[in-house]
Design a protein that fits this description.
Blueprint lengths: L2 H4 L3 H97 L6 H71 L12 H7 L6 H12 L26 H7 L1
Protein name: Programmed cell death protein 7
Pfam families: PDCD7
Keywords: Coiled coil
Length: 254
């Protein structure tokens, strides 16, 4: 068993073999990481593409719905205008018959009462029909306006949600920057895992109501007005360290 170890060049060959195995493992790990990164990039690209397609489809649907509603609303308004024109024509006919009846009366010609009754019945029938149509068109217009207002309200809500999302992302980015200054960059700082207990300690109030109450109780003991001569009020957030004032301090911070 020991004899091969004593042969000249065996250890060098064994070292080369181990080095080849190590390089092979590194290549496999690198390929695996590259494949994983490529899949993640493809997944992000697919997610971004799907999001863009969904936004375009939603905008197209909203545009088509608004165009259809505007078209129907325009048609309803046209019907309302036609109905109003019919009402005006009917009033003009009543006025014309009255004038003609007065002119005939001055000449001694009087129509029979049955003719007046037939004319009035016909006029009342037309007025009732036009009134029903007017009420129907007004109801359609109100319904369309409610639908359009609902779409506009939904659009305002979506814009507000987008704005709030951007604000949350901005606040999250600021929080990450502050955490990076206080605890180090988790992607670059090699001892980030050692700081996990401290992170859990400082963030325990976000996960436990009892811890939140206890921390607030301890902090409330030291709450004082801003003009108190023996203290100051508790700051609303993290107190970031000031920049180094000399080279020695700067070296220690780095």
């Amino acid at each position: 068993v020991v004899r091969p170890l004593r042969e000249p060049g065996y250890r060098e060959a064994l070292r080369r073999k181990a080095e080849r195995a190590r390089k092979r493992r590194l290549r496999l790990q690198r390929r695996k990481q590259e494949a994983k990164a490529a899949k993640e990039r493809e997944a992000k690209i697919d997610q971004w593409r799907a999001k863009c397609i969904q936004e375009v489809e939603e905008k197209n649907r909203e545009r088509e719905l608004k165009a259809a509603a505007d078209s129907v609303l325009s048609e309803v308004r046209k019907k309302q205008a036609d109905t109003k024109r019919m009402v005006d024509i009917l009033r003009a006919l009543e006025k014309l018959r009255k004038l003609r009846k007065e002119a005939a009366g001055r000449k001694g010609v009087c129509p029979p009462p049955s003719a007046d009754e037939a004319f009035e019945n016909q006029v009342e029938s037309l007025k009732t029909l036009l009134k029903n149509r007017t009420e129907l068109y007004e109801a359609e217009e109100r319904a369309l306006r409610v639908m359009l207002e609902g779409e506009q309200e939904e659009e305002r809500k979506r814009e507000m949600e987008k704005k709030q999302k951007k604000e949350r992302e901005k606040l999250l980015q600021q929080k990450l920057e502050i955490d990076s200054k206080l605890f180090g960059d988790p992607d670059e700082f090699p001892l980030a895992h050692l700081l996990q207990p401290f992170r859990e300690y400082y963030l325990q109030a976000e996960h436990s109501v009892a811890a939140l109450i206890q921390i607030r109780h301890e902090w409330d003991q030291y709450l004082v007005p801003a003009d108190h001569p023996e203290g100051s009020c508790v700051p609303p957030g993290w107190v970031l360290p000031s920049l180094p004032t000399n080279d020695t301090w700067a070296t220690a911070v780095r």
